[in-house]
Amino acid sequence: MLVSCGQVKCDVVKTSCCFVLQIFAMACRYLLLVVVLVCVGAVSAVEVHRPRGVPLSKRQFYEENRPFTCLDGSGTIQFDRVNDDYCDCKDGSDEPGTAACPNGSFHCTNAGFRPAFIPSSRINDGICDCCDTTDEYNSGATCQNTCRDLGRKERESLRELAEVAKEGFKLKEQLIHEAKKGLEEKQVGMGKSKVAELQFSKKATEDKVEALRVVKEAAEQPEKEAKDRHLKAWEVSQIPVSEQQAVIQVEKDKAKMAEAFLRLDLDADGLVSAVELQSHTELDPDSDGVFTEAEAQGVLGGVETVDTGAFETVWSNIKEKYVSEPQPDVPTPEDPQTPEDTREPPPESDSEQYPDDDIPEEYEDDDQDEEEDDEEADDEDEKVPPTVRPTETAEEDEQAMPPYEADTQSLIDVAQKARDEFDEAERALRAVDDQIKGLEKEISLDFGPSFEFAYLYGQCYDLTTSESWGSWSGPEDSVYSLMKYDHGTGCWQGPNRSTTVKLTCGKETVVMSTSEPSRCEYLMEFTTPAVCQEPPSLDSHIHDHIEL
Amino acid sequence: MAPVLMLWLALCLSGTGAVDRGNFKTCDQSAFCKRQRALQPGQSPYRALLETMELTHTKLTLQLINDNNKVRLLLELYRLQGNMTRVKINELKPLKPRYEVPDVLVHEPHSEPLSLLSQDENGVVLSLGGEAQRVIVSARPFRLDIMEGHEVLMSLNSRGLLAFEHLRMRKDTFSYKVTSTVASVWDSVKWVFSSSQADPEAEKQEGAEEPKADDKAEEEKDEEGMWEETFKSHTDSKPNGPSAVSLDFSLPGVEHVYGIPEHAETLKLKTTDGGEPYRLYNLDVFQYELFNPMALYGAVPVMLAHNAQRTTGIFWLNAAETWVDISSNTAGKTVFGKMLDYVQGSNETPQTDVRWISESGIIDVFIMLGPTPYDVFSQYASLTGTQAFPPLAGLAYHQCRWNYNDQEDVQAVDAGFDQHDIPYDFIWLDIEHTDGKRYFTWDPHKFATPKDMLQGLVEKKRKMVAIVDPHIKVDSDYKIHTEIRSQGFYIKNKDGGDYEGWCWPGNAGYPDFTKPEMRAWWASMFAYDQYEGSMENLYTWNDMNEPSVFNGPEVTMHKDAVHGSWEHRDVHNLYGFYVQMATAEGLIQRSGGVERPFVLTRAFFAGSQRYGAVWTGDNAAEWEHLKISIPMCLSLSLVGISLCGADVGGFFKTPNSELLVRWYQTGAYQPFFRAHAHLDTPRREPWLFGPDNTALIREAVRQRYALLPYWYQLFYHAHRTGHPVMRPLWVEYPKDAATFAMDDQFLLGRDLLVHPVTEEGARGVTAYLPGKGEVWFDVHTFQKHNGAQDLYIPVTMSSIPAFQRGGSIIPRKLRVRRSSTCMEHDPYTLYVALSQQRKAVGELYLDDGHTFNFDTKGEFVHRKLSFSNNVLSSSNFAPAAHMSTKSWIERILILGASKPSKVTLKTAGGQESQLEFEFDASMSVLTIRKPGMNVGEDWSLAPPAVRKAPLRPSRSNPGEDASFQFDVNMEGRLV
C-alpha cells in the first residue's frame, strides 16, 4: 500500500518538475526511493518471485503456472512462454527479461540506487546499463555492481543541492520581496507609486517648459530685431568680389550641407528620411503649417531616404529655407522666420563633434539622451574652445561680421539665457518621459511568477552579442529555467545569432560557462537564486536513511 | 583559421548559393579540349602500316602513321581473358616517355592468343576467340571494328577523330636546336632496344623515313595554348607542349550509355552535342549544380553501353584531365550522323558515338564486351579489383557534423542516441578536432584526452572516424611536415621547390602520394605509437584529396607541379586514389594485417573501390539534391564503387524536418549511410525536430539495422565478384526498355526494390515493379503485387516503399540494438518470399564482422537457403569455411504461403520436432515460431531432406487443402 502510494506520488512529481531544475524532483524521488527500499526490505523476507525484468508493481500480472495475458490484452500465452526469448505479445510484455521484443523494457531494481527501466535491446548486449548488473546475465560482460556507490554519490550531491536550494530559496524570497516592493512603487494607480510620482513631476515640468517658452520668445523678439539691424549695416559695408571668397562660399555651403545632413539625420543611420525631415517645418513646401510625410518625401525627391550623395541635390533645393537653429553669433544672411516651436537640438557650431555612428541603437529615446549629452559637452567646448577650433573660426571670422554693439549684445545675452533655461527645462521633461517609459516597459516584462527575476533587469553579465530578449523558453513545467535571446545578426548560411541562458539554482548570480553548441547559437549557464525551489525540508529523512 | 576561411569564402562566395561556373573551365577554356573538339570527323590522317604488323602469342602490334606530319604511333592490341580487348596507342618514338597509369590495374591482365583470319592490303581480320568474334583492322584510314557474326559491336576511329599530339621541341627556344640532335641520338638508341624483335628490313625503312617525318613536323603551326595557357590569373607553363590524345568509339544499336562518374547527372548520360562535354577532372566544387556535365570530386573513366541484347563497356585508362563527348543519331541528330545513316543505308539503327579526349598520357583502352551487365562488372573487376569488404559497422549508421566541438559534445551526442534509442555505430570528427588543422593531432583543449573519448565509445561498442586530409601545414614544429620535407616527399613546383598552396591550415604542402615510399611512410603514420591518441576503434576520412588548393587554378593544383619525373597534369585524377590507398594500407598495417580498414574518400579514380567508401561531396539540403543522390550512387555502382552515399540531410543549408526525414529514409537504403552538416548550419541530431520526427528517423535507422545481414551479404558478394550492391533496374531486367533510364528507384542486390519518397509533400509514389510473371511483396505490409506494372503507392511520412522479389530469401535481425556490434550474436529472422512457382532462394553470410580472417583463415558462415517443393532447406555454400556462431534462427516468415497442417523441423542429428506457427490468411503470411537452429553449425554433412508425407502436385486451392503437410527441413540443432 505504501509502495503503490509512493509510486503514484512520485510519478506526479516527476512530471511536474524535471529537466534543469531537478532539485525538487530528485529530492522527492529520493524520498520515495527510501520508502521503496524500506518496503523491499520488508517484503523481501516474504520472497516474492517474479520473472526477470518485471517491476514489483507489475508482479501480480505474472503469476507462475497460470496463462499470461499480454498487458495490452492482445493475446494470452502459456506461462512458460514468458521470458522464453521469443516475442509473443505485441507490446513486448511477455519478454520483460530478454531482448526478444523490439519494444520491451527491462526493470532493474538497482538496490542502493534508483530503480530504472531500460529498453529490452540493452539486455545482454555486452554493455552494463543497470548498476546492479542484472541486464547482463548472459553476455559474458563483466559488470560491477555500482549501485551503492552511485546511491551514496547521489545522496551527497542531493544534500549539497538541497543546501544550495535552501539558501538560494531564502535569497529568492528576499528577491521576491524586493521585487514586489519595487513593483508596487513603480506601478501606476497607487498615489505614491513611482510612475505616478513621475507623471506628476512630468506635468510640473511641462508647465515649466511652457512658461519658459513664453519668456524665451519674448526675449528673442528684440534680439532678432537688433541682430537684423546689425546685419544690414554690415552687409552694406561688405562687397564680396574676390574669387577666393566665392570658393570659400562654396566650401562653407558644403560644410553647411554636411552639418545640415548630420542634424537632419536624427537616428544617425547615415540616411535622412522623410520622417526626420518633418521636424523641419520650415521646409514645408506649401508652408501651410502642416508638413506631412508625403511632402517631406517630395522634398527628398520622391524617396523615403537619401544618403549624403543624394542629399546634395536635396540641399540645393532646401538650403534657402533650411534653418538649423538660431545662431546668435553667426546669423544667416537671409534669415527666414525662425520657427518658434522647432524641436531642433540646442545650438552648436561644429557637427563633427557628433560621435560616429557607434551610438547604440537600442532605443530611440536613449539615442536622444546620448545626443543631448554630447551636445552638452559641445556647449562646454564652445565656452572653452579646443586648440584646433579657433584657427578655423578665426579664418571664418576674417570674413565675418564685426562684433555686436553693446546694447545688441545685451539683448542677445538675455535671449540666450532664456533659451538656455528653456532648453534645460525641455531636457528635464524628456528625462522624466524616458523614466516613465522605462518603468512601464519594465513592469510589462515577465519577471517570473513572483517577480523573482526582476533584480536581473538591466544587469549585464558580459557576453557580447547583439540578440534581443526573446522569451522564457524552458519546458512547460519549468518555463523559467531557460531564457532565449534571439534575432541577433545573421550568420553566413546559418541562423541569426541567438543565445540560450540556462538557469540553475545557486546562491550567487554567476555565469558558469559559455559555449557555442551550434554555429551562432550560444549557450550560457547561469546560477541564480531566482530559480531555486523551496526545498521540501526533508533533511531529517535524508539523514535518517543514509545508512541504507 | 580566420584568414583561411576568409580566403575560402572570398574564393567561393562570388555566386549566391550555387557554384560559380566562372571558376571552372569550359572545354573552350581548356586549350587541348578546344583544339581537339575543333577536329572535323571523317578526315582521319592515320593509316595503319600493315607491313609493320607483328602477331605474337600475347598481342598484335602495328604502326600507325599520321599522313599529315609523318609521326608514327605504335598500336598494341590484346585479347584479354574474360571477353575483353585492350587497345593501346602510344607514340612509336616519343621525345620522352609518356605517362602510363600505374597501380590502377590489379595486375597485368592475362592475355589470350589472337589468330589471324585473313589479311589483304586493306586490312586484317583477327579472331577474338569463340562466338565468332572478330576484330577488323582497316588500314586507310585506320579503323578498328569489333564484330560478332555480322553485327558490329563497337568501332574505333570510325569517325576519324583519333588524335595524338606527339611530343615536340619548342621551336622558338634555343635549346630546341641544341637538344634536338641529342634527342634523336637518344631516340635511335632507344629504338634499337625497343624494336629488338623487329624485322631489320622494317627498321631500315623506318630509319629512312625518319628525317622526312621530322621535316614535315616542323611545318605544323603552333596554336595558342600549346605551350602556355592562362586561366583566371593562373598560368600553366606547359614545358612539354601539346600532348593530348583522343579517340572516338561508335556503338551501333545503342541508345543508353551510363557511367563516367562523377557528375551530378541523371543515370542515363545525355548527348553533349552543342553543349559541354562531360568532364573528368577531380575538383573541389563549391555548391555544385545539378544536371550538368561539370567535373566533380572524382573520376572513373568507365562508360557502359546497353541495349536489350548486350551490355558493353569502355575503360579509358588515363588520369589526366579528360572530356567525353556523347552524340547519338536518335537524340539530336547531327548532320554527320544523318550522313552516316545515309551511307549505311539504315535510318532505323540507333547509334551512340562517344569520344574521349585527354590532355596527356597515352591511349590505353579496355573494351569490355559483356555480353550481360554482370559480365561487364566481372570484366571490369578483373582489371581494377572489387569493392573492399567493409567492416560490418561501416554499413551501419554514421553520425557526422562539421564539427563535434569537443569531447563533451561527443559524449553528449553519444548519450543522445541512447536516450532517444536510435542506433548508431560511428561518430565523426571533422577538421576542427585537430591542433590547428595539423592532421594526426588533436586540439589540446577540446580533445585533450582522445583515448578517454575513444574508450568511452569502445564501452558502447561504437567507433569514431577522424579526418586526415592530405594537405600538410607548413610549420617547422609539426612533425609530419618536417619529416615529409626532410625526406623530399612533397610535390614540387615547376621551379623545383616544394609546392605550396592554401588550404584549411593556411600555407600547406602536398605529399607526393604517387611515390611508393611516400605512401609507405604515410601508412606508417597510422601506427598506434605514431598517431597519438588513436585506438583500434578510430578510423579515417580523407577529404580535400582532389587535391583541393584554395588558391590554385580551379581550386586545385597547378598542372605544371612536379611528381618525380611526371607532371601533375599526368597524374591529377589519381591523387585521391593514392591518398586513400596509403591511408587504408596504414589502417591495415597498424593492426598487423588483421583488421579491415574503413576509409572514406571524396576524390577517387578507377580502382578506388579497393580502398573503402566514397561520398558525393558537398551537396545541399534541397529536395533535388536528395533525388540526385540515387543516380549519382548508381553511376558509381556501375563502375565498381559500391560503397557510396550522399550526406544525409544535405551538407550546405538547413533541411526542414520533412526533407531531413525523407533523406534518412532514403539514406537508410543506400550503401554508405552518413548524416553530415556544414559548420554554419544549426544542429540537426535526429532528436532535435520533435518527438514525431525523432520517431520517424528512429524507424528509418532501425530498418537499416534490421537489414544489416542482407547488406553485409551483398557487400561480401561485391567484394568477391565486383557485382554492384545498389543496382539500376536495367541491370537485373536488361531486356525491359522501361527500366533503362529509371533512376528514382533502385535494387539492392537482386531482391529488394526501393523507391524512396523524394518529393516534398508527397502523398504517393508510382513505383515500377519489373519482371513479367514475377511478384513483389511490400516489405512492410507483405502485400503481394504483380511484376511488370506501375504501382501507385499512397504514402505517409513513415513510408519507405520497398519490395521483396518473389523467389528470394532475405535475412534480417529484428533485435535492433544501439550499435551493430551489439547485435553480433543475435538471432535471425528469415523472410522467404515465394515466387509464382512457389520457390525461393537466398543466402546467409556472416563472419566476425571486422577482420580479414574470412579471407585468410576461412572463418565465416555462408549458407544457401532454398525453398522448393514446400521444403525450406539450408545447405553450405562454402564447405571449406569454418566458424562458430551463437546466432540462431528465431523466426521464419513465408510470404505468399498457404496454410500447412503442421510444420516439422529436422535437425542435423535427425531429430524431428513440431514447430508452432501462425498463419495470416489475409496476406498469406506463415510465421514459424522459434525454430531455433544455430546458423553457424557445419551443415554440409547433413543428409538430404526427407518429406514425411506426399505433397499434392497442384496448389491451385491451397487454402482448402486440409491434408497438406508443410515440412520445414533444416539441418542444424536446436539451441
UniProtKB/TrEMBL annotation, chain A:
Stretch list, region Disordered: 321-406
Q: Where is the composition biased (Acidic residues)?
A: 347-382
Record-level GO cellular component terms: glucosidase II complex
Looking at the record, the residues that make up the MRH domain are: 441-534
What GO annotations for molecular function exist for this entry? calcium ion binding
InterPro entries in the record:
EF_Hand_1_Ca_BS, EF_hand_dom, Gtb1-like, Man6P_isomerase_rcpt-bd_dom_sf, MRH_dom, PRKCSH, PRKCSH_N
Ranges where the EF-hand domain occurs? 252-287
* Swiss-Prot/TrEMBL keywords: Coiled coil, Disulfide bond, Endoplasmic reticulum, Membrane, Signal, Transmembrane, Transmembrane helix
**Is Transmembrane helix there in the keyword field?**
yes
Gene Ontology biological process terms in this record: liver development; N-glycan processing
Query: From which residue to which does any coiled coil extend?
Result: 415-442
Gene3D superfamilies cross-referenced by the UniProt entry: Mannose-6-phosphate receptor binding domain
Q: Which residues cross the membrane?
A: 30-49
Q: Is the Chloroplast keyword given for this protein?
A: no
What this protein is called in its record is Glucosidase 2 subunit beta
Which species is this record about? Merluccius polli
The gene name on file is PRKCSH_1
UniProtKB/TrEMBL annotation, chain B:
InterPro entries tied to this protein: Gal_mutarotase_sf_dom, GH, Glyco_hydro_31_C, Glyco_hydro_31_N_dom, Glyco_hydro_31_TIM, Glyco_hydro_b
Q: Where is the composition biased (Basic and acidic residues)?
A: 201-219
Q: Where is this region: Disordered?
A: 197-242
Q: Indicate yes or no for the key word Amino-acid biosynthesis.
A: no
Could you name the domain of life of the organism this protein comes from? Eukaryota
Give residue ranges for domain Glycoside hydrolase family 31 TIM barrel. Answer: 388-714
What is one Pfam family matched by this protein? Glyco_hydro_31_2nd
Would you indicate the residue range of the signal peptide? 1-18
Biological process annotations from GO: carbohydrate metabolic process; N-glycan processing
Question: SUPFAM superfamilies this protein is in?
Answer: (Trans)glycosidases, Galactose mutarotase-like, Glycosyl hydrolase domain
Task: Report the residue ranges that make up the Glycoside hydrolase family 31 N-terminal domain in this protein.
Answer: 76-325
A Gene Ontology cellular-component term: Golgi apparatus
> Which reactions are catalysed by this chain?
N(4)-(alpha-D-Glc-(1->3)-alpha-D-Glc-(1->3)-alpha-D-Man-(1->2)-alpha-D-Man-(1->2)-alpha-D-Man-(1->3)-[alpha-D-Man-(1->2)-alpha-D-Man-(1->3)-[alpha-D-Man-(1->2)-alpha-D-Man-(1->6)]-alpha-D-Man-(1->6)]-beta-D-Man-(1->4)-beta-D-GlcNAc-(1->4)-beta-D-GlcNAc)-L-asparaginyl-[protein] + H2O = N(4)-(alpha-D-Glc-(1->3)-alpha-D-Man-(1->2)-alpha-D-Man-(1->2)-alpha-D-Man-(1->3)-[alpha-D-Man-(1->2)-alpha-D-Man-(1->3)-[alpha-D-Man-(1->2)-alpha-D-Man-(1->6)]-alpha-D-Man-(1->6)]-beta-D-Man-(1->4)-beta-D-GlcNAc-(1->4)-beta-D-GlcNAc)-L-asparaginyl-[protein] + beta-D-glucose; N(4)-(alpha-D-Glc-(1->3)-alpha-D-Man-(1->2)-alpha-D-Man-(1->2)-alpha-D-Man-(1->3)-[alpha-D-Man-(1->2)-alpha-D-Man-(1->3)-[alpha-D-Man-(1->2)-alpha-D-Man-(1->6)]-alpha-D-Man-(1->6)]-beta-D-Man-(1->4)-beta-D-GlcNAc-(1->4)-beta-D-GlcNAc)-L-asparaginyl-[protein] + H2O = N(4)-(alpha-D-Man-(1->2)-alpha-D-Man-(1->2)-alpha-D-Man-(1->3)-[alpha-D-Man-(1->2)-alpha-D-Man-(1->3)-[alpha-D-Man-(1->2)-alpha-D-Man-(1->6)]-alpha-D-Man-(1->6)]-beta-D-Man-(1->4)-beta-D-GlcNAc-(1->4)-beta-D-GlcNAc)-L-asparaginyl-[protein] (N-glucan mannose isomer 9A1,2,3B1,2,3) + beta-D-glucose
Q: Give the Glycosyl hydrolase family 31 C-terminal domain ranges.
A: 722-810
Q: What's the chief localization of this chain?
A: endoplasmic reticulum
Pathway per the UniProt entry: Glycan metabolism; N-glycan metabolism
Q: Which GO terms describe its molecular function?
A: carbohydrate binding; Glc2Man9GlcNAc2 oligosaccharide glucosidase activity; glucan 1,3-alpha-glucosidase activity
Keyword set, alphabetical order: Endoplasmic reticulum, Glycoprotein, Glycosidase, Golgi apparatus, Hydrolase, Signal
Q: Which family does it belong to?
A: Belongs to the glycosyl hydrolase 31 family.
Name-wise, this protein is: Neutral alpha-glucosidase AB
Q: What species was this sequence derived from? A: Merluccius polli (Benguela hake)
Organism classification: Eukaryota, Metazoa, Chordata, Craniata, Vertebrata
